[in-house]
C-alpha cells in the first residue's frame, strides 16, 4: 500500500475555543461624557478635536506596501483626526494568531479590522459573553450616522437584522452591500488551456466524457510541442481560509453531487440538511478522481502545493504545461501582461454521468459575511472607534470607494453620459483611470475592510486590453445557470457553538484527508468505504447534523 503524508486543510480549520474572560485585565471604557469631551460633536468630521490614537490589528495584503504610509491611511487620518497604529498579521496565519491572542488573557488592540473569516456571526455571542468584544447596540444611532442613514434608506436590506446574533446584540460591522456581488458568489472556477484545445483540434468540453478525453489528449499528444511528455493535464492547489478555490475535488465532484467547500460540503434540500460526503454519489466521484490519478491525468501536487507554487508551474519558462487548473481567477495563477494568461479560459460546470451539473453558490456571503470591524474589550473609547469606522461608510464616493479604487479623479472617475455601456451592459457607475487591483501599490488598502458598497466592481466601463472584471463577470454568468442554493447562515447558542466548532474541525479535516487518500489509492473505495463511514460516526457526524438541523429549524424553517 502507498504511504502518503497527509497535510490537507489542516491550515484551514483551526478550532475556535471559547475563552475564560480575564476581567481584571480589562480596560474600563470611559463614560460617555469623558469620551464626548474628546470628540467633535458639532459636525461629522473630524471625529475628534485633536489627534487620537487607535491600536488596530489587520491581516496582511501582499499588494499593500505599507499600511502606515499608504495614501488611504493618511487621507482617513486627515479626515477624522484618528491615527492608526497597525499590527499587521500574515494573512495565512490570521485565524491561528487571533485564537492565541484572545486565549492569552493579555491586552488586546482597540479594534480588529478585516478579520471576517475569524469573527463569524455564529461565534460572536460567545466572544461577547466572555467579555472579549464590546456590543455596539447602544452606540450605533448616536455615533454611526452613516450606518444609520444607509440602514434607514435601505429597509429591505435588513442590515441591523443581519448583524444581530441570538442574544440580541450587534458585536461589529461588515460591508453594507445591498446587492449580491455575483463574481464573489460563484468562486469555484476551472480554467482550461484554450491553446491546448486549439492545438488538439478540440472544443470546450461540456460533459465529463469530453473533459476526460481532453485530459487524456493533453497527456498523450504533446500539445505544448516541446517533444517531451511534461504536460500536467489537471491541477489545483491546497486551499486555505483566504483562498479555498484551488480545491481540486470541487469542480469534479459537482458532476456527481454538490460539493460546497465553503459551506462544509453540506446540502440543503426541502429544509433538510445532509452531508454530501456520505452518499453513493460522493463515492462515485471519488472513483472518478482515482481513475484520473491512476492514469496520470490528475496532478498529485494539487493536494500539497500552494497557490504561488501553482503559479510558478503555469509560468515555467520552457513551456506551458498546464491543461486545466482550479482557481478563483486566472490572474491568481498567471501573470497579467504575460503570454500564459491569454491561454486560460473559464470552463463552465460540466454534466456528469447521471446529468448532475452544479456549482456552489455563495449567495449569502456578501449579505451575511463575517464582521470586518470589531471593538475589543480593551478599547477605552468605543464611541470614537465606531465614529472612525463609520466614516468608511460615508455616501461620498471619494471616501467610501477609496478603499477599493483609490483617489477619485486620479485613479477612477464618474463617467460622462456618452461613455458607453458598463461591463454588464447597463449604465456605468464609474470608470477606471488607473487600475490598481492585484498590483503592489501604496495607494489604498486593497479592498481590505469596511465600506459602503455603492456599486459593484463590474458596474463600470470596460478597459482596453486585459480586464479581469470582464473575464470574471462573463465567467460568473456562464456558471450562474448551474448555481445551487447553499445552507443559509446559522446562529448557535454558546454551548452549541462550542460543540459545532469541535465537530466541524474534526469532520472537515477528516473529509479533506480522505478525499486525497481515496484519490491516490491510499484508501480503497471497495474495501475502505464502510470503515470511512464508521469513522465519521465515531467523530460525531450524527450529533453534528442534529445541531445544524436544530439551528436551521429555529432560524429559517417556515
Description:
This protein has 558 residues and is α/β, with parallel strands linked by helices. It is built from 20 helices and 13 strands. It has helices at residues 32-36, 71-80, 94-104, 121-129, 140-143, 145-153, 159-163, 182-185, 194-200, 208-220, 248-253, 280-294, 307-314, 382-391, 397-400, 402-405, 468-479, 494-520, 525-539, 541-555; strands spanning 52-59, 82-89, 111-113, 189-193, 266-269, 272-275, 324-327, 344-347, 359-360, 373-375, 412-413, 431-432, 483-484. A four-stranded mixed sheet has the order 2-1-3-10. Strands 7-4-8 form a three-stranded antiparallel sheet. Strands 5-6 form a two-stranded antiparallel sheet. Strand 1 (52-59), helix 2 and strand 2 form a beta-alpha-beta unit. Helix 12 crosses helix 18 (494-520). The radius of gyration is 24 Å and the shape is globular. The protein starts with 31 loop residues before the first helix and ends with a helix.
Question: Secondary structure elements and their pairing?
Answer:
Layout: H1 32-36, E1 52-59, H2 71-80, E2 82-89, H3 94-104, E3 111-113, H4 121-129, H5 140-143, H6 145-153, H7 159-163, H8 182-185, E4 189-193, H9 194-200, H10 208-220, H11 248-253, E5 266-269, E6 272-275, H12 280-294, H13 307-314, E7 324-327, E8 344-347, E9 359-360, E10 373-375, H14 382-391, H15 397-400, H16 402-405, E11 412-413, E12 431-432, H17 468-479, E13 483-484, H18 494-520, H19 525-539, H20 541-555
Parallel strand pairs: 1-2, 1-3, 9-13
Antiparallel strand pairs: 3-10, 4-7, 4-8, 5-6, 11-12
Amino acid at each position: 500500500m502507498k504511504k502518503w503524508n497527509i497535510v490537507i486543510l489542516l491550515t484551514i480549520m483551526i478550532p475556535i475555543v471559547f475563552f475564560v474572560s480575564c476581567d481584571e485585565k480589562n480596560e474600563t471604557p470611559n463614560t460617555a461624557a469623558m469620551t464626548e469631551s474628546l470628540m467633535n460633536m458639532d459636525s461629522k468630521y473630524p471625529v475628534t478635536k485633536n489627534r487620537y490614537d487607535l491600536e488596530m490589528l489587520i491581516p496582511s495584503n501582499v499588494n499593500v506596501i505599507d499600511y502606515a504610509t499608504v495614501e488611504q491611511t493618511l487621507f482617513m487620518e486627515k479626515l477624522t483626526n484618528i491615527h492608526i497604529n497597525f499590527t499587521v498579521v500574515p494573512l495565512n496565519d490570521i485565524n491561528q494568531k487571533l485564537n492565541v491572542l484572545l486565549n492569552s488573557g493579555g491586552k488586546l488592540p482597540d479594534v480588529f479590522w478585516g478579520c471576517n473569516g475569524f469573527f463569524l456571526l455564529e461565534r460572536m455571542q460567545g466572544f461577547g459573553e466572555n467579555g472579549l468584544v464590546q456590543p455596539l447596540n447602544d452606540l450605533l444611532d448616536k455615533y454611526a450616522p452613516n450606518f444609520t442613514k444607509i440602514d434607514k434608506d435601505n429597509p429591505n436590506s435588513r442590515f441591523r437584522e443581519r448583524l444581530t446574533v441570538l442574544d440580541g446584540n450587534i458585536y461589529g460591522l461588515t460591508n453594507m452591500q445591498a446587492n449580491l456581488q455575483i463574481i464573489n458568489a460563484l468562486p469555484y472556477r476551472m480554467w482550461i488551456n484554450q491553446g491546448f484545445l486549439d492545438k488538439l483540434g478540440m472544443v470546450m468540453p461540456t460533459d465529463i466524457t469530453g473533459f476526460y478525453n481532453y485530459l487524456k489528449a493533453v497527456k498523450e499528444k504533446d500539445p505544448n510541442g516541446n517533444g517531451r511528455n511534461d504536460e500536467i493535464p489537471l491541477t489545483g492547489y491546497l486551499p486555505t481560509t483566504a483562498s479555498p478555490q484551488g480545491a481540486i475535488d470541487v469542480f469534479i465532484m459537482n458532476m456527481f453531487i454538490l460539493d460546497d467547500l465553503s459551506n462544509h460540503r453540506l446540502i440543503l434540500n426541502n429544509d433538510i440538511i445532509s452531508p454530501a460526503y456520505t452518499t453513493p454519489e460522493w463515492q462515485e466521484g471519488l472513483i472518478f478522481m482515482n481513475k484520473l490519478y491512476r492514469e496520470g491525468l490528475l496532478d498529485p501536487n494539487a493536494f500539497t502545493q500552494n497557490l504561488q507554487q501553482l503559479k510558478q508551474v503555469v509560468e515555467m519558462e520552457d513551456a506551458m504545461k498546464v491543461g486545466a487548473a482550479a482557481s478563483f481567477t486566472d490572474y491568481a495563477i498567471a501573470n497579467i501582461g504575460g503570454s500564459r494568461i491569454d491561454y486560460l479560459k473559464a470552463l463552465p460546470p460540466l454534466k456528469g454521468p447521471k446529468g448532475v451539473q452544479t456549482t456552489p453558490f455563495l449567495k449569502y456571503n456578501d449579505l451575511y459575511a463575517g464582521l470586518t470591524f470589531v471593538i475589543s474589550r480593551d478599547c477605552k473609547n468605543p464611541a470614537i472607534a465606531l465614529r472612525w469606522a463609520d466614516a468608511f461608510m460615508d455616501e461620498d464616493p471619494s471616501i467610501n470607494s477609496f478603499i477599493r479604487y483609490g483617489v477619485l479623479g486620479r485613479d477612477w472617475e464618474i463617467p460622462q453620459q456618452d461613455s458607453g455601456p458598463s461591463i454588464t451592459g447597463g449604465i456605468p457607475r464609474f470608470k477606471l483611470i488607473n487600475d490598481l487591483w492585484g498590483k503592489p501599490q501604496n495607494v489604498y488598502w486593497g479592498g481590505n475592510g469596511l465600506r459602503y458598497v455603492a456599486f459593484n466592481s463590474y458596474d463600470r466601463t470596460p478597459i482596453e486590453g486585459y480586464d479581469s472584471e470582464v473575464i470574471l463577470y462573463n465567467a460568473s454568468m456562464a456558471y450562474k445557470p448551474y448555481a445551487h442554493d447553499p445552507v443559509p447562515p446559522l446562529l448557535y447558542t454558546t454551548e452549541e457553538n462550542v460543540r459545532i466548532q469541535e465537530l466541524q474541525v474534526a469532520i472537515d479535516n477528516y473529509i479533506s484527508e480522505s478525499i486525497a487518500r481515496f484519490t491516490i489509492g491510499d484508501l480503497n473505495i471497495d474495501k475502505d468505504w464502510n470503515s470511512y463511514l464508521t469513522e465519521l460516526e465515531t467523530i460525531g457526524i450524527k450529533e453534528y447534523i442534529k445541531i445544524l438541523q436544530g439551528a436551521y429549524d429555529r432560524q429559517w424553517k417556515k
